[in-house]
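Below is just one:
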Amino acid sequence: MNLSIGRLERYVLKRTLAGVGGALAIIAVLIVLIDFVEVSRTVDVRGDASFPRLLWLTMLKSPSTVLTLLPFAFLFGTLAAFVGLNRRSELIAMRAAGVSAWRFTLPATAAAFIVGAVTVAALNPMAANLGAEFERSRTAITEEFQTSTAKDTWLRQGDATSQVVIRASAHDEVDGTVRLKDVSMFVYRVNARGGLEFSRRIEAEEARLMPGYWRLRGVREAAPGAGSVRSETLSIPSTLDEQAAIERFTTPDAIAFWRLPATIRGTEAAGFSALPYRLRLHQLLATPLLYAALSLLAAAFSLRLMRLGGLAALAASGVALGFIIFFFNQFCGALGKAEILPAFVAAWAPPLLALLSGLTLLCYTEDGGIVRGRTAERTSA
């Protein structure tokens, strides 16, 4: 009996993974096509980019979008797999053999949770690195355009004794180091009461981030009540490394999962709010639960017996509910960024809601569906 159940679970898992893989392939193709059109529109008109270069940029940009929409692959794929099993009466045979719905929905749910964990631990850092390379390549192609229209860049660094606010008109990377142009540095001392006292202002034509310090060129330095002093070069201690500085130029979604804790600590040490990064960290931690919940929800919506009718409408309702949960997740994220909801609540509420909905529907189907089916058979007899 155990061997039979094991084979049954492997069969259901195989069908589910095939459905998820098919849905993922369709979503990925659509995303690549849309991203290629978008990259062609925004890059090719501003720089001399060939078709292979545009395709390369698209391949760098698409993985992060695919990961964002991966929950739909589990929703559509699991739903298609279980509806197919139901239409071929395989689910009916399983249940007639005494196999509980909990048993043959477990493989899909467990697989979704495991894939979610792998996505967060391995695929998310890869997608973040590819996204960073996309930004660097796009900047290199459109550098002339961006130099004339770019907005000021702001950074902040600090420790227990000082805080430095940095403004630059442009930023890029040269020889593997971060370079800022037309730089203004506002240096503050931390007094005994923990307050900030303005110390000096430094203007520089260029600043490069070296290990442990900023190397400035074309410097003019001024302190309160004193005249300005000019120098060709100047070194300023820095608490930022290259990776941390680059991350300040990007959104929280573009930072790899394993870098988020260090980014949160560095941002808070510099005096900034780390709420967006903390929210992103909680959202990534909740990702496996979200995948598992949507997979369970899709399976629960496809278990209605064919002879009872209404399977197509029920499956469509599952798709609609999946979309609602996805957009509710985005809405909670927006509330979290606006500090209306705590980061923990904004990140974990949608997956928990989806999981409870799936469990509720599965209980209703498992405990009530069989009774209604038998009642209908007796009535028709």
About this structure: The CA atoms of residues 152 and 169 lie 5 Å apart. The radius of gyration is 27 Å.
